[in-house]
Amino acid sequence: MKVPLTDWAKLHYSKEIGINTLRRYAREGRFSPEVEMVAGCYMVDENAKLTETRSRARTEMVKKAAAMKMNAADVDLSKVDPVVLEIVGNVA
């Protein structure tokens, strides 16, 4: 059964989660299964789980690669995703 985001949060967490945070999670696609917009309200399966998004994981990899690049003298960059190194090279 689908429930509003606030009801889902009450079912899964003892501490209240702000509606803006829940909406951001919905927009980022962090619910599995994904949320559905019904009459302007986000509805989510009551048994849905929060997941880590690929873009968020990619952001963390970029941050790590940037930190490694700063200290590149003693770090083996061969284990870092080449795409991440290219992104960092273009940003830094």
Structure description:
- The chain is of the alpha+beta class and 92 residues long.
- It is built from four helices and five strands.
- It has helices at 5-12, 19-27, 54-70, 82-91, and strands spanning 2-4, 31-32, 36-38, 41-45, 49-50.
- The strands form two sheets. A three-stranded antiparallel β-sheet has the order 1-4-3.
- A hairpin with a 2-residue loop joins strand 3 (36-38) and strand 4 (41-45).
- Helix 3 (54-70) packs across helix 4 (82-91).
- The radius of gyration is 18 Å and the shape is elongated.
Choose one word for the global shape.
elongated
Biggest sheet architecture:
3 strands, antiparallel
The total domain count is 2
Assign the structural class, choosing from mainly alpha, mainly beta, alpha/beta, alpha+beta, or little secondary structure.
alpha+beta
Number of strands: 5
The ordered H/E elements are EHHEEEEHH
**Rg measurement, Å:** 18 Å
Percent of residues in helices comes to: 40-55%
Q: Tell me, what is the CATH class of the largest domain?
A: Mainly Alpha
Distance between the termini: 47 Å
CATH architecture label name of the largest domain: Orthogonal Bundle
Named CATH topology of the largest domain: Multidrug-efflux Transporter Regulator, Chain: A, Domain 2
Tally of helical segments:
4
